[in-house]
Amino acid sequence: MNISEALLHALKDRGVxxxxxxxxxxxxxxxxxxxxxxxxxxxTLSHExxxxxxxDAAARVNCTLGAAAVTYGAGAFNIVxxxxxxxxxxxxxxxxxxxxxADESARGLLLHHQGKALDSQYKVFTNITCAQARLDDADxxxxxxxxxxxxxxxxxxxxxxxxxxxxxNVSCQPVSSSRATPVDTDALAACAEEVLARLSDASSPVLxxxxxxxxxxxxxxxxxxxRRLDVPVVTxxxxxxxxxxxxxxxxxxxxxxxxxxxxxxxxxxSDGLLLLGVIPSDTNFGVSARQINMGRAIHAFNRQVKxxxxxxxxxxLADLIDGMLARVEARSHSRAPTNGVLYPRGLTADDNKIxxxxxxxxxNDLMGAHGLMPIASDVGDCLFTAMEIAQTDLIAPGYYAGMxxxxxxxxxxxxATGNRPLILVGDGAFQMTGxxxxxxxxxxxxxxxxxxxxxxxxxxxxxxxxxxxxxxDEWHFADMAVPLGGTGVxxxxxxxxxxxxxxxxxEGGKFFLIxxxxxxxEISDILRRYxxxxxxxxxxxx
Length: 542
Ligand code: TPW
Ligand code: MG
Known about the structure:
By secondary structure, this protein is of the alpha/beta class. The chain has 3 domains: 3-164, Thiamin diphosphate (ThDP)-binding fold, Pyr/PP domains (Rossmann fold); 185-325, 3-Layer(aba) Sandwich (Rossmann fold), CATH 3.40.50.1220; 356-536, Thiamin diphosphate (ThDP)-binding fold, Pyr/PP domains (Rossmann fold), CATH 3.40.50.970. Helix content is 38%, strand content 15%. It is built from 22 helices and 18 strands. The mean pLDDT is 94. The site of magnesium ion has 8 residues, from helix 18.
């Protein structure tokens, strides 16, 4: 076995189903082994940001590591933004980069793709990943690979592996299987009991589900825990879509001032708020009507459990939940049931212009008739519109909020699961990565893509209505679908929207792009309230 094969087997052992990538000469030896060995399939896209987003999406939907392979310099620096996003949103994306070999580095010539120094790239990735290795020694490579992959999995964070091109075919030992580090059982007992005591002392406990539950595949256990404890469950904004398939779905998503008032009060008035795997970000909490008292909340995140003013360290979420489940019997259900959020349904198919809520309504009707579809959403009003769509699997950059995620993430989702996704994307974001749809034909992907075309960076217009730079030209996105191997329809009325969605569900096999024309200034109510909520907390603009 050579180092490339050892790495690919180690990824596969840890649940990776495919590698996304774009080759380059420093990475060609690795890519050649990847193709020839067929240990994992390779999916190439057009631009490295999309490679990163697709691999990130695959990791999110399969609750495991994602793998992205790039070349040195030009390729690796192109993926930096996607890796940073993955770090922020706790996604264990593994980047494998080619690199110059030892001999050529020593020749003294500047090498193509080199930036400031040969190791500049390694240093950059050190800042945006939790573990790094340069595989320049065949004896240590297997343990280095194991260490890096297992650290990424344990912390649910990205990692970086640099494979010099003269090492890709060097023989080495296989990588050992991952070993779980045991948790301190006394600390776990104390922690689980303290959390349970807090919850039983509270008169209105609430459980908020955050993304780490998905990353560590804990949704079923948490549903069971909530049932036994008889506590209402909501998701964070980032955690939207969690528990969507559970027989105890979340009541809705906490959106502070932008959300359903009953649900907002439930969370903000709780005297026992249990935050499980919730990122404590401004997008999750900056929109609170009143400050959530974190001192009174219980927060399990990043392998720590904070209760008031003390912290249990090295307390993985999975162990905490197992520890709690082992200590609670099912309670008799005494609490009055709380109503969940209702989502708009029943689109009137008339000649009125389309609003974002009409799109949510049309999708709810569609899913009501044909079953839930997973959604990949970009940033922009489309993501706020997704909050009006009945709960279903959702992947979106709700915290890091980088544009361009939706299309490649939807493609990664379909590659990783085989399920046909719905992709929601604004025209601005579509301008960034929409071209990637041209790769659908090769892999027989058939996402339904809805472009919210308001010829505008509309979210920014809400913040700065006076600035003209937010006006975009009206590109004809539907017209580019056929040459890219898909179908495209431009819709301007509610009737046309409904007909196009209906057609899209019946015509599989290639991507179906619906370009929904929306007037400038026509935004969802949730977005309007959300941005107002966020800007109230900011220093006044200059
Ligand atoms: C990679 C900053 C946040 S929202 C936005 C920008 C430019 C406009 C989005 O326009 P779009 O959606 O997609 O047409 P909509 O509904 O607002 O009209 N660069 C990156 N990411 C972000 N978030 C920005 C800039 C931004
Ligand atoms: Mg727009």
